Amino acid sequence: MILDEQLLREVITKRPSHSHKSTFGRVVLIGGNQQYGGAIIMSALATVNSGAGLTTVITDEKNHAPLHVHLPEVMVADWCDQATCLTAIQQADVVLIGPGLGTSAFSLGLLQTILEVQTKHQWLVIDGSALTLLAETKLSLPYPEHTVLTPHQMEWQRLSGISIAAQTDHSNQEKQNELGAITVVKSHQTTIYNKENIYYNQAGSAAMATGGTGDTLAGMITAFLAQFPKNDHTVAAAVYLHSLIGDHLAQTHYVVLPTLISQAIPQWMAHFCTE
Amino acid sequence: MILDEQLLREVITKRPSHSHKSTFGRVVLIGGNQQYGGAIIMSALATVNSGAGLTTVITDEKNHAPLHVHLPEVMVADWCDQATCLTAIQQADVVLIGPGLGTSAFSLGLLQTILEVQTKHQWLVIDGSALTLLAETKLSLPYPEHTVLTPHQMEWQRLSGISIAAQTDHSNQEKQNELGAITVVKSHQTTIYNKENIYYNQAGSAAMATGGTGDTLAGMITAFLAQFPKNDHTVAAAVYLHSLIGDHLAQTHYVVLPTLISQAIPQWMAHFCTE
Amino acid sequence: MILDEQLLREVITKRPSHSHKSTFGRVVLIGGNQQYGGAIIMSALATVNSGAGLTTVITDEKNHAPLHVHLPEVMVADWCDQATCLTAIQQADVVLIGPGLGTSAFSLGLLQTILEVQTKHQWLVIDGSALTLLAETKLSLPYPEHTVLTPHQMEWQRLSGISIAAQTDHSNQEKQNELGAITVVKSHQTTIYNKENIYYNQAGSAAMATGGTGDTLAGMITAFLAQFPKNDHTVAAAVYLHSLIGDHLAQTHYVVLPTLISQAIPQWMAHFCTE
Amino acid sequence: MILDEQLLREVITKRPSHSHKSTFGRVVLIGGNQQYGGAIIMSALATVNSGAGLTTVITDEKNHAPLHVHLPEVMVADWCDQATCLTAIQQADVVLIGPGLGTSAFSLGLLQTILEVQTKHQWLVIDGSALTLLAETKLSLPYPEHTVLTPHQMEWQRLSGISIAAQTDHSNQEKQNELGAITVVKSHQTTIYNKENIYYNQAGSAAMATGGTGDTLAGMITAFLAQFPKNDHTVAAAVYLHSLIGDHLAQTHYVVLPTLISQAIPQWMAHFCTE
């Protein structure tokens, strides 16, 4: 199907009045090493602005202060503090791993831990460096049906073994069926594969081709899964909204900074929210 | 009584022209450990934007830099620096303890100190982790009639021993009379108990169900007590304004970030200020 | 004289087209200890937004990061690094000392250094803690006619020995003549004394009675002296503009945060700028 | 030629729809010591807002946190970490060195490294302290035809040996031909020299005469070279847009802070973008 605004109206439903912050999900975001701390900050901005109930960011201690400047709304944990991290992870409804994670042995250790402790009640979103690690190590996903992969075309090549030129719907879908995870192949026209479903995103523009756009999308997908039904429809809605906001901003901005997209999310979600 | 705008007009009075910053109260905020620093930052944003005269934040040293980014208007003290903290606390008109405080032995030590040094001229607001500590330790309040408790329903269950299902006006009021402190029981419909008075808050919405909303409310209550008459009416006005701003923002925002509420406070207070 | 907009039009003149950043003065701001770092940040925001050409802030190293978040436009020096600080100070046209300086032996040492190295080509603005130190130590001013003091009434009592109740124009002017420095006595109605001149500020409101308002004024005075004729007229213009902006913001804000005043300065200066 | 809006329309072209972040260039910015960290932050703000695809900032570790507050969009590297820095530099399409670099032996070492590793496929922009170092050491440029120098008049005097009074088109052009690099001589009326071409910038105003304006320009030039044809036309377009935005802001701001210019870039680029 071709993504459209109708999907947003279906997914973004009115919040129940008898609710509290836990109603909208506990989210854990893991990433941001000494060099790429901005990536996990951008994911967190997207997650919180998309309405996740409670967000904890597990990252290098160096990133805590800038993160709290952007978002006093999140909790933080030093990714060297195993006990605190494990507690946060075990309480999570959705875990995102990858933005700015890096590909060191330490990063790999974190990914392995996540794959080991994931329960069948939890969803996992794998993005950025974590996809590269997954491709290199051939680690298997414990709950592929509760997993979302968000590779851009080059990362998908590494992960699937399909060269960019050979990435057709047929080959991608075949590989998705083998892997089992909902797969968001990002390009100038992002496509989402899940079993027999293919979602085509015709929104999005070259103004969004700048560092951090993918980190923002990963954060949005995570927050949508935390509050709305956990399925490919919800993932597709996050992808479409991300591009739709970008297109709107691109009318007046030559380059659309990812942080600008995140700022705009609450108002766009209100716009599409159905009674 | 049902909270309404008339209450705001009564409480938010025009500032006397012959005044200076001390006229509007000295406030000390205590909280924010290594993991939950954002909580005390959000309380501080609410306190300063609500008009407290002079605000000192006692928190983990790690939180000082992000706090000063958000608010160069506050003074800071490292919560390990006992002498400086004690001086600040002794000069305070109102002390808030709890947002992001944590429940470690160190956190408990801070709470015990506050309960020991409080004088009859000072008001105390107890929020967040400090309520959990209070429930666990059964510490007694030195001046309950100068104390405000702000539990959400689960914290109130821990503190009062009344299960959420059994939290009726009758049982809550009975317990409040026993404890003696003004008690703000937060839920999708917050209620305030003090002696024979019950204040019902019908404002507020599910868009506010996100991490930090309670920290913001605690900061507003603290600032209102610092400048306006120190009583349950003033506490109720802070509760109502917090929800009213949230409702207004929820018309255009699917999720209302707590920092957005704080930004809007000075303009809403001007709106309701009576000559 | 009573301060009015005409004074602003006289002082805020159009910048010469053949100019560069040095044309508008080199400024050094000294203050901000471990506890009061926000004060020097607020002074710096005022200084830069008021148009000083090049600004260096000498402060505790702890304050550098939050300062650079607020103002990448400034240069910083660790106040423990004597050589770097001395170089910056010697190149300055105007030096401000005091906001958040504290009253430790180290702070006093800094003040003594400034009073020792000041040359007759430099102006000095003394504010906040530095006034308290001056009152305690009776240090003498090397160039009083190139010095501005900005005490609030209590600081003026300490400095002048005149109790607040006895602070009349007559007594204040007499003491100013003795001290020799331009003296800005801050209260709900600030008055400026210099020789036979008295300037009355009838602007300003109780909405500005919050921590940081004085630090902001000190920064504005410093920047005005850096670019405009170095005299009491220019100091008075800064005082008046500060209050005028505050009054404007107070129409819509119950409390006017000092950082909001600083943000508004460039537009207000453009408004009053004469051809 | 006299710079005008037509040049902007020629240079700022519509982005190809089949593109990704690498399409718009990998940029490395080098500068920002312990004292002048704000300079490289301002360059980075200009670079990212001008549309560079992927930006890495190599700077003193002290500047990482404030940089990530301003721009989570950038990657960072500690300039003491040689291996990481070298990898980033080797992948860059355009390198900027100089803003806030300082003139220490360490700074010189960084400049020497850059001049040693530059390949013929890379462009180099040399600004600020790096120009002073270049003047002192007479280091030679490996690829002058792929180099841009951005001295203000005093830096140009040091570099060229031509005193400010003697800086005429004739003398400047002669020296440019000798050096071989595109030379942007900044003054109240900036002029760009390259072989037989001279570009006159009649835009810009004294409101821009404040610390950081040059750092911002250097960042814009770098981003323009990263995405548009690498030549003097593109450099000239960046210079003109910088002044044009400044002039527009100067209509309402007595002093135009450099960070304000950067914020406005995406919208101005959209305005001039041709189909």
From TrEMBL, chains A, B, C, D:
Catalytically driven reaction(s): (6S)-NADPHX + ADP = AMP + phosphate + NADPH + H(+); (6S)-NADHX + ADP = AMP + phosphate + NADH + H(+)
Top-rank EC class of the record's enzyme: lyase
Residue ranges occupied by any YjeF C-terminal domain in the UniProt entry: 4-272
UniProt-listed SUPFAM superfamilies: Ribokinase-like
CDD domains noted in UniProt: YXKO-related
InterPro entries: Carbohydrate_kinase_pred_CS (IPR017953), CARKD (IPR000631), Ribokinase-like (IPR029056)
Cofactor(s) listed: Mg(2+)
Entry EC number(s): 4.2.1.136
Sequence positions that bind (6S)-NADPHX: A39, G100, H152, D215
Chain residues that bind AMP: K186, S187, H188, Q189, T190, G214
Keywords: ATP-binding, Lyase, NAD, NADP, Nucleotide-binding
Subunit structure: Homotetramer.
Cross-referenced HAMAP family: NADHX_dehydratase (MF_01965)
Family: Belongs to the NnrD/CARKD family.
Role played: Catalyzes the dehydration of the S-form of NAD(P)HX at the expense of ADP, which is converted to AMP. Together with NAD(P)HX epimerase, which catalyzes the epimerization of the S- and R-forms, the enzyme allows the repair of both epimers of NAD(P)HX, a damaged form of NAD(P)H that is a result of enzymatic or heat-dependent hydration.
UniProt-recorded name of the protein: ADP-dependent (S)-NAD(P)H-hydrate dehydratase
Protein species of origin: Candidatus Enterococcus courvalinii
Gene that specifies this protein: nnrD
